Predict the 3D structure of the following.
Amino acid sequence: MHIPVMLNEVIESLEIKQNGIYVDLTLGRAGHSKEILNNIKDGKLIGFDKDIIAIEESRSRLQKINNNFILIHSDFKNFKNELKKYGINKVDGIIADLGVSSPQIDNANRGFSYNKNGFLDMRMDQSQSLKAWNIVNEWNVDELINIFINYADVKMPKKIANAIVKNRPINTTFELVDVIKSSLPAKIVSLKNPAKTVFQAIRIAVNNEFESIDTVLRDSIEFLKKDGILAIITFHSLEDKIVKNFFGDLTKSKINPKIPVQEEKKFIVKTLKPSKNEIEFNKRSRSAKLRILKKIKED
Ligand SMILES: C[S@@+](CC[C@H](N)C(=O)[O-])C[C@H]1O[C@@H](n2cnc3c(N)ncnc32)[C@H](O)[C@@H]1O
């Protein structure tokens, strides 16, 4: 089961208008979308997911509320062009709850989890050809080191990359976990499961996650109406850094501080973390950060 993370905070921060247009870029099991749909009357919800199972399951959940929604099976980096097809050029709110959903992790056959044995897949979109298997078995040492460093801050990346190349073919998640663990000193393995960051790096590479985030941040700003709100939940520091830097650049003063001019603000931002209660109730929320941006001036 997928428990939506920071649901109340997201709904409050979106300041939902009954006739507004809202975009959920990461539908999952419609945890956030259901609540948005409950709060709009004559408005519209548009949901994106590149996992077709998420689209189908969310459709039957949302239909129980009303039909004021459109679901689109696509990478969210295409959201601008997809919305234009429906004549939508501006929206009141956009939410993204990044990463993988619990149903994806819990299904061993999807190959996302280092705790469940399955074929090395890790595709959110099961129609794409690149799988984790291709990265693990076909990429060279330098390419592996590059994703380990840039996508997950993997410790001892060279050792792990060399061990992977040496032990090919590696077909399953458990085989990969064994190779990772046996490539490192026992003391390090006993401190923290090293498979966690390696799996994260491979998953981000398979799904080209960072490129999609970069694109969507830029396009979201253009697509927000005045007083429109962008809310993004991230789950690890590298992902959060992309959002933090982007919001930081937008809110940074462009005027020389020595010049005594009052600069008109275009955006306001804030960051929230899950409550202690939520973390106790839903462990997955532990590392979540919700960054909210409001566009307070017309383009
Ligand atoms: C954390 S889950 C969202 C859960 C959802 N908010 C809920 O409460 O049910 C993330 C979802 O976003 C999807 N996703 C991640 N990156 C995507 C992308 N670039 N384009 C489209 N969907 C994406 C994943 O397939 C997954 O279903």
